[in-house]
Amino acid sequence: MIFLSQFCILYRDIFLNFTRENFSFVPEEFVMKIVIDRIKNSSRELAVNVNEELTKLNSKCRNIEWKLGKREQGNYIHAIFHFQNSDIALKAVHLLNEMQKAANHHTTFTLENFSSLKIELCTHQPKYGVTEVDLAFAEIFTGSVLSL
User: What is the pLDDT of residue 56?
Assistant: First the structure.
């Protein structure tokens, strides 16, 4: 199982597709625990070059662009997700809620007209700003919500 864990962390999307097609016995809870652990185990140190990290993140996220925002307290990242209907939008909010609880990392989000979900991510402690935790959360949430 250690090999599967390392494989999943490095190649999450490939792992999810591969296990669903070839190893239906691998529980979805196992996969989610591994990706949530990736968020929890990420550094809470402020990202040195947020713009570079956003470029990497956006190259992995189809059709979604994460952007840098600034507040008096510090930087944050944000994205807007558009959905075809309210059912999918509410599934995304539910997924976001479950990820926040499991990873103990909370976002600011707004659901507009049951079709757009705006998410803002930043870390508040030990310093306010964008960290690896935020970037990992953004990547995993984006990949998960696009498959709804």
Answer: 94
Q: Would you give the distance in Å from CA 55 to the centre of its chain?
A: 15
- What is the chain's percent helix, strand, coil content, to nearest 5? 50, 20, 30
pLDDT tens column, 73-127: 999 999 999 999 999 999 999 999 999 998 999 999 999 999 999 999 999 888 8
Q: CA 101, CA 137: separation in Å to the nearest integer? A: 12
Residue 31 has a pLDDT of 66
134 contacts 79 by C-beta, under 8 angstroms = no
User: What is this structure's pTM?
Assistant: 0.80
Q: What is the DSSP letter of 47?
A: P
Residue 110: alpha-carbon gap to chain centroid: 16
**Secondary structure class of 44 (helix, strand, coil):** coil
Segment (H or E) for 50: helix 50-60
Hey, how many other C-beta atoms are within 10 angstroms of the C-beta on 147? 10
Please identify which residue in the block is written with the tokens 């079709």.
115
